[in-house]
Amino acid sequence: MDYLQMLKEQPQEKLALVEDSEAYTYARLVHEAQELRAALAYSEPAVFIHEDSIARQLVRFVAYSGTKTVPIIATEVSRTQQFDVDAIPEAACMGVMTSGSTGKSKLLWRSYHSWADFFPEQNRVFGVDDKTVIFCQGSLAFTGNLNIYMGVLAAGGTLIVTQRFRPRHWLELMAEHGVNAIYLIPSKLLLLPKFMREQNTRVRSIISGSQSMGRVEADKLLEVFRRRRLRSTMAPAS
Fold first, then answer.
1. pLDDT for the residue numbered 238
2. Helices 143-155 and 119-126 meet at what angle, rounded to 10?
3. Exposed, middle or buried by CB within 10 Å (0-12, 13-18, 19+), for 217?
């Protein structure tokens, strides 16, 4: 799957991604990915993407997608690990890594049909469309993030993102950019009520996954994100 072509099909002047104070239209993402793709040698069967910036992770991932070199956005704990990339399945469009909770990441291969084919249905269930302005936090090495990012971009929505682990900063970004959806794992979601001074009636959808969330915790979120038809959905991690 060539995700670069997917980005080209969206309104190019529209805001695609904001990482803290850095903004990217769809046109800018396309331009930077095209420039990088033109400079690549494709001499390796796979490439490990080690970038601190979420935007740079995304640009490199898109640049390699649809080429003969399979992109892998690497986890921090994997930097000193060695992986076997000699037997990549023919249908693989990317490599993904487990989070490394045991101290080591495991490398898995994903096909287009196990991933992007599901975007239309996933977006329908999660209420994601071209009007979605969603807040997410953390690296694209976390496959839950990568899945949501690419699903939102496939729908023509806008991503508001940060690597910083600062809930006050998250809320500032949400307010500044008119965020109407949130994707965070429960342990991060449940930090928000502790820092909110008033209810947020703009958010229409909260998507979460990877960890369990009880009814009591969910009610705390619903209390601060007051909306008549707030959609709250638990999602898989990948």
1. 46
2. 90
3. middle
pLDDT at 20: 97
In one-letter notation, the amino acid at residue 94 is M
Radius of gyration in angstroms for the set of CA atoms belonging to the chain, rounded to a whole number? 18
Cα–Cα distance, 34 to 58 (Å, whole number): 12
Cα–Cα separations (whole angstroms), residue 59 to 28, 50, 64: 10, 12, 9
Distance in Å from the first CA to the final CA of the chain:
17
- Strand-pair partners of 205: 181, 231
Distance, CA of 156 to CA of 11 (rounded, Å): 8
Walk across the sheet containing 15-19 and list its strands.
22-25, 15-19, 158-162, 133-137, 181-183, 205-209, 231-235
pLDDT of residue 229: 47
H helices of the chain, in order, are 3-8, 26-39, 54-64, 119-126, 143-155, 167-177, 186-189, 192-195, 215-224
Neighbours of 232 (CB within 10 A): 15
Q: Average pLDDT across each block of 10 residues of the chain; the chain has 238 residues. List them in order.
A: 91 98 97 95 90 96 92 86 86 81 79 82 94 96 91 97 97 96 92 86 85 73 66 51
Is the pTM higher than 0.85? yes
The secondary structure of the chain in percent helix, strand, coil, rounded to multiples of 5, reads: 40, 20, 40
How far, in Å, CA of 58 to CA of 88, rounded?
A: 22
